Protein 1
Amino acid sequence: LSFFLLFEIYLRIFDLSSLRGLSETYSENRKNLEGRAFGEKFYTDQYGFRVPNKNFSYVEKNKNIILIGDSFVFGPGVNEEITFSGKLRKERNKFNVYNSARPGDQINDYYFQIKYFVENFSESRFLIFINFDDINFFKKDKDNVVENIRNIKIINKINNYLRSRLYSYVWLVGILTDPSKRYYENVNIKFKDEKLFERFAIEIEKINNFLEEEKIENIFFIIPYNYQIRQNCKKTDFIPQRKLSKFFIERKINYYDFTEVFCKKSKDNNLYINFDPTHLSPEGHQVIFDYIKKL
């Protein structure tokens, strides 16, 4: 027992692991909430969007910058003020910065979020972050052994309990199953499927067409997977990036691919949360912020 406790402390002190999970209350009520995501405390506002503190308020006369995405943009495991949305909020203090991303959101949700803002908020610009995981919406993994085991109710409960409390459990699972590699290989197969990618691309084009019709400024972002930037970015062939970039260029859609800068910065920094496929560390959030602050 003493060895286990020492190992748990060791992992925490030297940042060799991190917690997972999201407060159960978040699925029941996302508005005006105080909870924890990956062990880090978070707050949401009256809309259910992440904010720095429970008393946070917006300035009605300000113009708006809207961040669209999933849990990657929400920023679990990182203090709000050092996420790229929190940093942008400080940098652009004459704007309202809305981090509208919610864990569990997928590409089909983005259109309705954007439409809501266009209909209810004036003078907005949109920063839209595309996560490769979004393609999973179009095909469920019925043959994925690991996911099928995790979806067994009792195992799912045990897994959620342990990963939200024990750094050593997350470390062990990370070492044994390599989630970053496993998740990337899963989406990479789907990006090779032309029919799936076409359905994915249609959702992006639907968003872009709507914003063009409304004459609203926007930009899409491509974010690499953790697994892709291993070994100086020589682990994969970057099929998702190549297909998305080709699509954006052909449709003349404004976009930016973070892959190259992530490859450069990853040589000296751990840009992702330990053993996590997509969620950023403070250093990763800094890389995103360094670019979007110039927009």
Protein 2
Amino acid sequence: SLLQTWSVFEPMLFENRLMGLYGRLSLLNDELLPVRISLGAGGQLVCIAGPSTSVDSLLCAIEALDRQLHVEATKLGASYDLVAEGYNPAVSSPLDVALIPRARWTILSAHLGSTGRYGRDVMRCACSTGVSISHSGDHDAIQAFRLATALAPLLCFLTDNVRSFRGAGARRTQRMVRSVMWEDFDRTRCGMVPGTFDSNFTFETYLNWVESKQPILFESDDGTVLSTGKVVLSDFMRTRRLSRNEAAHLLHNVYPYARFTEHTLQISQADSLRPRMAAGYLTFLKGLLRNERSV
């Protein structure tokens, strides 16, 4: 293992509640790897490791978390293990899962409950393996975005591991549940961005698409979370001057096959994977999206 020591983790507070921990792992290769641990809307354990250029380092962080959780559970006399699956196999309805008490989740749940059949499933029961890759110039980023979009169904198929959807059991659960959920989640902000494969597609094209969508909610620098109602982002931005951080946060309120944030290209088409499977998936994407002949 590359792990040398855990650093002291600092609390992450949202709306004056402890919602996560932030710290760094000290690795034997002298790398200090940032790690954030938090909870999703339905209590899913979310671990964000990186950035790092080394897949081995990222794998080390996730495996260390697995081991540490087992150790701490044993101290409490419990037997807990992390389950890496794309959908909670123990529930028959997303309403069986309590929503974490946070304004962001309350606003999103109210909105998504009226936009498609599976909004609450995605929020409360689904879990994914997300990959963020740094931009390496405008042209390469756009080409990688196109490739990730084109491969979205394949990535979903290759990582499909849902055993039971809404209590249906293995025999009655169809393949690629993740794809089914996202297709009837909120069609206006999911799927393929219009014009992705047009020769004149640019970052500006992407941002124009984002600005045409309702942001659902807005989180200010002081942590205040507000519902934006049915106002589209372009109109909302005319009502106030945004800080860079506030503007960057609004990029996370759309869910296409691949999406741009301030510094990265994000791909979230994979179901939640066990650490070594996740490392293999990351290696596959890294090699594919960094290969000039691919993009």
Protein 3
Amino acid sequence: CLEILGPDGELRYMNPAGLKMIEVNELDSVIGECVYPMILKEYQDAFIALTKRVFKGEQGFLRFQIKGQKGTVLWLETQAVPLFDNQGKVESLLGITQNITIRKHAEDIIRNNERKYRLLFENMTTGFALHDIICDEAGKPISYRYLEANPAFEKLTGIAISNVIGKTIKEILPQIEPYWIDVFGKVALTGESISYENYVSEIGKYFDTWVFSPQKGQFAVVFNDITIRKKTEKSLAEKEKILSLISDSTPLIMILVDAEYRIIKVNQTALNISERTEQQVLKERSGHIINCV
């Protein structure tokens, strides 16, 4: 859209594309009229200020909204420059304007989504860290750099985010095993995700970890603290081992059944007396083995 304005915002010329934006069929119906009223109120002062600057010989840029004569509201972006007469005096404002409504709505959607994702990112209880893989001239991964991490990363690891962002793993942990650089490098370069459980002896925690590549050359690590679960599993395993030793060494018959009286555990004494194997009695009802005894 091309438009030419006078010092008070009066319209001196507008091409057909501009007339379409303001929902007018004929230039004669708006020529000489001030364009300020069609600009939404919150942008009028900025547009008037831009016009004044142009008539002082300056150039300017502005994003603003207008309301056409049929009520359509549009986002516009204009670049305004002065037009000079033969004496070098500013005679008019030349505006080169484009309709950016679709782009502006897309920007707003992206911005709102970014806010939502940022809010989720900052409040999620799962740890997250994004990295750039660093390769040598031959393309072999030799290190990686921390790009971003969420508050849960700091809470779960005890490592301050400010101490890692922008730094390479070799600056933070010079003795890191090359194995991990190779593993993460493969994810970053091939896009193949991996998952694993690992124990970090430095902080005494177990983590359930998922590693994926959001784009080539990068990898993200998502992890949960499963220390309590792992310790509970270990404690239960130890108790079960002790219970098994006790049950197998006692001369008494010991049978463990579920709610439907199916056998889920039987000690060696019961097996010896019944002259059956554990595989033969498991899942049978407890009365069967008692009858055998």
Protein 4
Amino acid sequence: HPAISGDAGSSHNSVAWCWDMGGGTGQAFPLAVAGNIKHSTTQAKIGASSILCDASGDTLKFGGYGSKGRLGFGTQDFTVECWMYVNTLGNHNEIMNCGNTKWRFAIEGNGKPSWNHSGSGAELTSATAVSTGSWIHFAVCRHNGTSTMYLDGVIKDTATDTNDYTNDDFTFGAYSDGNYGADAYLDEVRISNNARYYTTFTPSTTAFTSDGNTLLLIHSDTSNNSTTFLDSSGAALNTDGGIDSNVQANIPYGQSIVHYRANNGVATTVGHGLDSRPDVVIIQRWENGTGHWI
């Protein structure tokens, strides 16, 4: 029984059903769009397009979820990274943040990237300003209590970092209220719960693939002006049903997490990725515009 029949439709954008007693790593999450953030083929680093923010309050976001918290790194290692092409430098270009101040990456008005986790001064700052009109790879990694900022794989700053990073909503392109918007193209945004880099490295120029440490992965590589954004952090495509679904194995409990997009109230079948029909189905619905599962 590769699929379950039922009404896969909804007035909301996406539905996930699962038998999920483990962590959330690997679930595919749609991102809520605000403003006119979109994919653009004007600039592209990897694939056919990149994500355009125009400093007018454009954001992508999803809600923190679960008691463990998806982006609550705690005191463990982590990596936050992306490719960026800065159009103009303003008073403050907010690239991405968790809860505005739980952690945040921005390019300050002087063109220098900064990383902050306290809501006040930056803990990491590049002494080198970025250039407009060219692609730059940015990464911050914490490894064994030390965080390091990299630009194009070159170390720009390090600091002792024993901060306990708590979970909150993730916002991409500006603060959650739309202020301090970035004027930039971005590509291959990845957040991981391990340290991907320990020393100088050469940034990848091919699309990232998900693994067990990937918490969030946003690709572009799509048509011009598309406003569909999905987290690609691990759920494989399943085409067994009447509509496609994304299935992620929940190894500790031998079950699966399934995500699919509704089909305007049309009853259909959804592939579940198990060898036999599940006995229990737990359903969560994605609330458009809020960035939360309900």
